[in-house]
Specification:
The protein is of the alpha+beta class. The chain has four helices and seven strands, in the order H-H-H-E-E-E-E-E-E-E-H. Strand 6 and strand 7 form a beta hairpin.
Length: about 220
């Protein structure tokens, strides 16, 4: 990659190093617009290289095939995240409420960063990934539900969290149209990842099929 041909093992190591690095930046919300473009280029090249390996004449070992599938799944997940970029730094006042059995609470909060389908914010209560929250804007009469996409406890007993808005179109009331021309590349990456994953699974399935048996009564060698 980057103009150099890599063997399968070096390719796998290269992909894991970059996936870990980019996913850490996404989790910690430390990436910038230039990094997003670098992520997109990496994901596209990574997926295309995986397809070449899947189509290649050299047979893949079971562990190599499993790692390629894992890389493709992680690349698809990251692409779905990028497809929902860009982000905007905005402080929007909210009321958030958790109705989980045995752990109900409600508090006022405000966004730090918003995206078309979610937001980054801080909660005074402890929140876990996967929790469902009721979210209401205090500056406008809008409310929806959200899923906690990730959560990290802080030293004061609160939580830094990223939420994904559910069944809500343009909850923040912002103009995201300038991002639309960039959506074609993530869609291409997702399709390539699906195609490569299907090919790898098909190869594995064919290898598991037993060899055909000669018809009964035929002479044996």
């Amino acid at each position: 990659m980057d103009g150099k041909a890599l063997c399968c093992e070096h390719f796998l190591a290269y992909c894991y190093d970059n996936l870990d690095n980019y996913q850490r930046q996404i989790r910690e919300q430390t990436y910038r617009d230039a990094t997003v473009e670098a992520m997109r280029r990496f994901l596209l090249h990574c997926t295309r290289e995986a397809i070449d390996l899947a189509h290649g004449p050299d047979p893949l070992e079971n562990l190599q095939r499993a790692r390629l599938l894992d890389i493709l799944m992680r690349a698809s997940d990251m692409t779905r995240h990028l497809r929902r970029s860009p982000r905007k730094e905005m402080a929007i006042p909210l009321t958030i409420r958790c109705e989980k059995l045995g752990h109900q609470w409600e508090e006022e909060a405000q966004t730090r960063v918003v995206s078309r389908f979610g937001a980054l914010l801080h909660a005074q209560h402890q929140v876990e990934t996967g929790d469902l929250l009721f979210v209401a804007r205090r500056d406008e009469d809008r409310q929806t539900r959200a899923r906690v996409a990730w959560a990290q406890q802080d030293d004061q007993g609160g939580t830094e969290l990223g939420i994904e808005l559910l069944n809500c179109d343009n909850f923040w009331g912002l103009d995201w149209s300038y991002a639309d021309p960039m959506l074609h590349e993530p869609e291409m990456i997702l399709k390539l990842a699906d195609d490569a994953g299907n090919l790898l699974r098909d190869r594995k399935s064919r290898q598991r099929q037993p060899a055909p048996q000669p018809p009964a009564g035929s002479p044996s060698n």
